[in-house]
Amino acid sequence: AAKTRGKNTHELFQQHMTDEASRRMLLENDLRAALDEHQFFLVYQPQIDIEQGHIIGMEALIRWRHPERGVVSPMAFIPVLEATGMIKDVGEWVLHDACQAIHAWQELGIWRDGMKVGINVSASQFLDASLTHSVRQAMESTGVDGQVLDFEITESMLIESVDDTIKRMHALRELGITFSIDDFGTGYSSLTYLKQLPVDVIKIDQSFIHDIIADSSDAAIVEAIIAMANHLSLGTIAEGVESTEQLAFLQQAGCQRYQGYLYARPLSREDMTDLMQSTATLNQP
Ligand code: C2E
Ligand code: MG
Ligand code: MG
Ligand code: MG
Which residues belong to any copy of the EAL domain (predicted)? Predict the structure, then answer.
């Protein structure tokens, strides 16, 4: 009888749960197993120097291969990882896996000096006291230098605690790590903080790039961001570049680098290796 009651209670509970909440719970349970089951993997999107046309780095982007649902976008699960605190462990895994890939590329002789891999870092992960230690550990266990890493942070991170963020940035800079502001222009107070922040690069959000040709306001915003960055001696990367028209506009506006489907979609580690191998040969004198 108890068993039957238990089942009924469960059914009742499910009935009353919203679709959204139950989906979220399933997702959370599946995510708890994902690290142990090796279901996460990284893809790499090349970043191109606009003047030279060379690959000067890449961004590491996480993917989740769900046993039933296939490959899941980070937009669907990063917020859950953040809300549950699981982002800390997954963030450590990202760092370690990216460093391991870099080491392999160095061993193959296709990693060029000055190249960097951009790592997306969540706010909670960034302010966690153990981050610097985790970074050092990833560097030591894989044998790569911090100079190969660029941490992508967002403006929203600054709203919580600017002082702590800046302190943390200085500690990481001592390891050779540089910083980019991701999705620039979509947060707020950007200009106030930009002056104080030890950042190297501004990544212009793809929402501005998307209509750069058709929308004169977006064009003006992008030109202004690039001009400001150049005056402040900050690097610029345009995100989400999909057409040659967009690229020509960015070049004319003085943007340094870009990433986007025009050059390549995010690639598996193997495909990135092949691309680096073929471009390394091409670029040889
Ligand atoms: P993001 O850092 O702004 O990454 C850029 C997003 O734009 C990526 O989406 C990329 O695949 C996509 N993209 C690149 N080129 C184009 C293009 O030409 N057109 C269009 N329409 N899209 C393009 P993705 O891979 O789905 O990642 C989404 C977001 O998830 C990232 O935005 C980042 O905020 C977050 N994310 C990804 N990997 C990680 C990670 O390892 N840790 C954390 N904390 N967040 C991550
Ligand atoms: Mg990013
Ligand atoms: Mg972005
Ligand atoms: Mg984004």
Answer: 24-280
Token code pair at residue 197: 């922040």
Query: For residue 112, what is the DSSP state?
Result: P
The residue contributing the CA closest to ligand 1 atom 16 is 240
Task: Out of 61, 134, 179, give the residue to mutate to test ligand 1, the one with the largest number of ligand atoms within 8 Å of its CB.
Answer: 61
| Coarse DSSP helix, strand, coil percentages of the chain, rounded to the nearest 5 percent | 55, 20, 30
Q: Which atom of ligand 1 is nearest to the CA of 259?
A: 15
Pocket (CB within 6 angstroms of ligand 1): 45, 61-62, 73-75, 78, 94, 120-122, 152, 182-183, 206, 239-242, 259-261, 266
> DSSP letters along 259-278, please?
-STTT---B-HHHHHHHHHH
Tell me the C-alpha distance between 36 and 32, whole Å.
8
Closest alpha carbon to 249 in 201, 214, 199: 214
C-alpha Rg value of the chain to the nearest Å: 21
The tens digit of pLDDT for each residue in 153-207 reads: 998 887 778 888 999 999 999 999 999 999 998 877 667 778 888 999 999 999 9
In the numeric block, which tokens belong to residue 51?
């003047």
pLDDT tens track for 106-162: 999 999 999 999 999 998 899 898 999 999 999 999 999 999 999 999 988 877 788
CA dihedral sign of residues 160, 163, 167, 172: positive
